[in-house]
């Protein structure tokens, strides 16, 4: 029977081959940094959104279709809501990606869960972006009885 030697826990690792080192990236470091930065930006965006929607003017009583239409008529609020949508979706997807990596044990399952996650996030981001930039509360070909009261008569 041969004796097996176990290296001390703090002993240096064997040098890695140059080919293996070339493929290493700092993806997880960048993902970790993104979570911190996007979390701070999301706090500003979300609390700004809540303050404007709930505290300014008539508060919650003013929230209706006309309020959103008026808000999205201003490019500033379109960009504000777009940043909030994109950061929230990417931040949340990155967090779920980490959970999938931690708890999905089989490689095949992990891959399919991430494909589903990325697909759902991409669809939500694309549709949300389209809604923000193509929103028209007064479409030209709509029936007059379906239009909000603030739209000019056709």
Automatic annotation (TrEMBL):
Q: Which SUPFAM superfamilies match?
A: Fumarate reductase respiratory complex transmembrane subunits
Q: Does the keyword Iron apply?
A: yes
Q: Please give the coiled-coil regions recorded for this protein.
A: none
Membrane-traversing stretches: 29-56, 76-94, 115-135
Q: Give the record's GO CC terms.
A: membrane
Major location (coarse): membrane
Q: Where in the cell is it found?
A: Membrane
Any idea which UniProt keywords this protein has?
Heme, Iron, Membrane, Metal-binding, Transmembrane, Transmembrane helix
**A GO molecular-function term, please?**
metal ion binding
What domain of life does the native source organism fall in? Bacteria
Region of interest: Disordered: 1-22
Q: What is this protein called?
A: Succinate dehydrogenase hydrophobic membrane anchor subunit
Q: What organism is listed for this UniProt entry? A: Phytoactinopolyspora halotolerans
> Taxonomic classification, please?
Bacteria, Bacillati, Actinomycetota, Actinomycetes, Jiangellales
């Amino acid at each position: 029977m041969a004796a097996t030697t176990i290296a001390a826990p703090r002993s240096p690792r064997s040098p890695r081959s140059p080919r293996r080192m070339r493929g290493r990236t700092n993806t997880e470091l960048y993902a970790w940094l993104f979570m911190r930065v996007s979390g701070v930006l999301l706090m500003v965006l979300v609390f700004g959104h809540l303050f404007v929607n709930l505290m300014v003017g008539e508060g919650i009583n003013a929230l209706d279709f006309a309020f959103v239409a008026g808000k999205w008529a201003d490019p500033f609020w379109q960009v504000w809501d777009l940043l909030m949508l994109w950061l929230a979706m990417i931040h949340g997807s990155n967090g779920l990606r980490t959970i999938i990596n931690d708890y999905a044990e089989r490689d095949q399952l992990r891959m399919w869960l991430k494909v589903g996650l990325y697909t759902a996030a991409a669809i939500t981001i694309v549709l949300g972006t389209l809604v923000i930039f193509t929103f028209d509360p007064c479409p030209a070909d709509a029936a007059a009885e379906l239009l909000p009261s603030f739209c000019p008569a056709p």
